[in-house]
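Retro notes, structure queue

What went well: the backlog is down to a handful. What didn't: a couple of records were mislabeled last round, so from now on we paste the full input next to the output in the thread. Example, using ABC transporter permease from Ferrovibrio xuzhouensis:
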Amino acid sequence: MSTASEYAGITGDEMRRRRQEKLFARINRTATYLNVVGFGWLVPLLKIAAGDHPRHQLRELRQQLLIPLVGIAAFLALWAGLAPQVHTSLGAIPGPAQVWEQAVNLYQDHKAERAKEAAFYARQDERNRELVAEGKADRVKWRNYTGKATYLDQILTSLKTVALGFIIATLVAVPVGIMCGLSRSVNGAVNPLIQIFKPVSPLAWLPIVTMTVSALYIDTSDAFPKSLVISAITVTLCSLWPTLINTTLGVVSVDKDLMNVSRVLRLPTWKTVTKLVLPSALPLIFTGLRLSLGVGWMVLIAAEMLAQNPGLGKFVWDEFQNGSSSSLARIIVAVLTIGIIGFLLDRLMYALQAAFTYSTNR
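Corresponding output:
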């Protein structure tokens, strides 16, 4: 906080200039966080409000906000104009208005299903209270609601599945990548396997994973049903490679002088890894994590279609099989949902990268 003595003996113009400089410094620090979450277009508005010359800031605002909005508007206009010209066995391709209508319908279906669930549990509670009051407590039963999964439930299932697969992939890829970066022998042994398995499609992995999980995962739990585990492991097998490769590259790129110092000081391996290797390699590790999460989210949809895991992939497949007049619009809703969630997941990983690495905060 500024004090009166700080501005003693200076003119009013100089005082205003210094205050403005401090304000701009705060805005520039805030800009880092706004850019991370995708609200960088607010920075020009803040600078204009702080008294900066509006011409340059309006140019920045146009570049960061207006041009992307024009691109989105042009896409929507082309979609609305061209979609009715394409006719399928289910009718014309739905335009933005029809897709929005189905998105609203899916949300209304979710609300109606939640109301049915609440009513079911209310009736069950009332029945059990009456049995207890009649002295028949031994006949009290508690049953779970078995209604259909709504669209929002399927989104949550997909997020849970990709999170499980991504966590497993990270726990495997980061340690193996560190070992590959520290040891040429380990790298030489693992690298051929990376080159062989990295291009394999999830459609090829899925039958192997399905048979393996069916043989080993016998005592299934409600929290992790077999279809979810199959989808998650398929995501793991397809998404761990970017993290593994980038972790290896990050460790190999650590300053050789730092590694020589650790040898001179005879630091234990775990201390060398935690104090020198990881801090230096974190930017590339996070780059790999972002790529792995994007790959995992793409792979998930195909895995859920075939494994019948009740997520977005199964939703798309069910609508395709349903063949109703609204199916195409609902599939497009799912496509847009997948894209938006993928973007948000990438922003989340970028925010974590900005929080934990030096290179994104400079």
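Agreed that this is the format going forward. Reviewer comment attached to the example: The chain has a mean pLDDT of 86.
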